[in-house]
Write a structure and sequence with these properties.
Blueprint lengths: L7 H12 L3 H14 L4 E7 L5 E6 L9 H4 L26 H8 L1 E7 L6 E7 L2 E2 L3 E3 L4 E7 L6 H6 L3 H18 L4 E6 L2 E5 L6 H9 L1 H6 L1 E7 L2 E7 L12 E5 L2 E3 L2 H10 L12 E7 L4 E2 L10 E2 L2 H18 L10 H5 L12 H4 L36 E6 L3 E6 L2 E6 H16 L6 E11 L2 H16 L3 E4 L4 E8 L7 H14 L5 H16 L9 H12 L14 E4 L1 H7 L7
Parallel strand pairs: 1-8, 12-14
Antiparallel strand pairs: 1-2, 2-7, 3-4, 3-7, 4-5, 4-6, 8-9, 10-11, 11-14, 12-13, 15-16, 17-18, 18-19, 19-23, 20-22, 21-22
The structure holds adenosine-5'-diphosphate and magnesium ion.
Amino acid sequence: MSIQLLAPEIASQIAAGEVVERPASVVKELIENALDAQASFISISVEGAGKRAIEISDDGMGIPAKELALAVERHATSKLQSAEDLFHIATLGFRGEALASIGSVARLTIQSRQMGAELGARLRVDGGIAKPVQPVGVSEGTLVRVEDLFYNVPARLKFLKTDTTERRQIDNLVTRYALAYPKVRFHLRQDGRSGLQTSGNGDRREVLAALYGVDIARQMLEVLAEEDELSVLGFISPTSLTRTNRREITFFVNGRPVQDAALSAALLKAYHTLLMVGRYPMAILFLELDPEAVDVNVHPTKAEVRFREPDRIFTGVQRAVRRALLAHTPIPGLENQIRWSSGAQWGTPARQIDPAWEMATDESRLVDFGSGPTTEETVSPPASTLPVGAVPLLRLVGQVATAYLVAEGPDGLYLVDQHAAHERVLFERFLSQRGGEIPSQSLLQPATVELASASARLLDEQLPVLSRLGFKVEAFGSNTYLVRAIPTLLAGSNPAAALRVLVEDFEEDETPLQAEIEERIIARVCKRAAVKAGQTLSTEEQRALLRDLEACQSPRTCPHGRPTMIHLSVDLLERQFGRRGAR
Ligand code: ADP
Ligand code: MG
């Protein structure tokens, strides 16, 4: 075949393929145009998962009638004038490609009236062919209707996911823009049914409630950090609220949603050891930085950006998240566990419990919306006075129920879960040994373990990791293994059972990173090795456990994220005994 220039329709369909991948990409481009036009209300109506029709109207600046025909031309934009402008882009669009691309793969109608103009204009584009512009009487702002998406590129249609998935993509997208632009009123409707509606009153937590429901929205922690010309705002889940995947992690950079593995990694690092291995936080974070410090022109749908100083940004994100987490993760105290104080076991004086209190969690300092008037009882309790992250020196009082240690600290009583505490101590000890030689104990008699063949494949892959952690395991015929040594920490436990537990963990997994697998294995090993509830400890052992826990970096939670201790402050005791308040 000889080389020839492509016909213009084919060239524009190819170009459109980069911008318009699915219905949600159309919605994205049109929302961005409305936002760039300073709209304060954006209404989105979708039919047939966006394949039949997408209609977006806004009350923004509108398009001058004489420019309407130009708006649908490729590389026609009002947002960029010189190449120089590319390096400090303050609008979401700048390439002048979206309307042209949409027009080449669908039936597109735009009607718009420029603010202050007497009349509006309407333009139709059908598979890339524009009809003449018509004057029309419409209200100020712009309405774009996209019908029969991909009707002329059937191959594209085949690549779309199920309607449910495409609809959900649109839902997610609109909600995330609504969160990013809380001062803009959004209204989404799919197949006539009203979906997301925001008030545009600027309250992000209200939008968050629309996204996740009131209960989760209430628990989300606020991130608010500003330093070195980088601001990081948004919400993250507390360690008690996790997901099995990273899907609920979203970043916006200067008002645009971006996918960036390194940003996610920075976030996960901030949660390091606070989450159960294999669990992920939920987060929606908005980064604002000098437009010149980020290149937005590196990806066809602008979904990726490049930072001029990536390390500074990642460290900033990690620090902001970590700080928010620590500030909101006090040792759970009775103050925050209303169910306890209402329970008979503590002989609480009867008192009216406000429903708002019932719902209070350890994040009760957060804005409490929608729960009605607050009474004196609902005023947030004083937070733990401990320095963030640390536990004070504790004096052992004794053991109760062969499960908990009772200790006294400078501000009241501490109940320590012996198993969770020991898990934390072992976990940190293990991590500190990692990289060096982890002490291993050879078995006099190797143990034989037979596995299902799928499990055996998984184990084969992880043998090098296991050996780094002190397990010596050899394949021995098909699907059978010999355990020759185990980490010293596990001395005395059943080696075959220990190996089986680890393999189970591989099976449950999605596709974790290698570092996560390793940590998960360590957490498992520590769980097995830790003292159990029901195990009597000598006074010396109890003291040693408290001392070891005090020395931990994250003493308040076990490696799986559960609390290691509960704090009953002197203040609380006084209130419970009626020594305070009654006077
Ligand atoms: P870009 O957004 O990159 O400039 P588009 O193809 O999305 O390219 O839009 C082309 C031009 O049409 C924009 O630069 C803008 O001037 C105008 N435009 C598009 N949508 C709107 C809208 N909703 N309100 C006002 N002007 C719009
Ligand atoms: Mg645009």
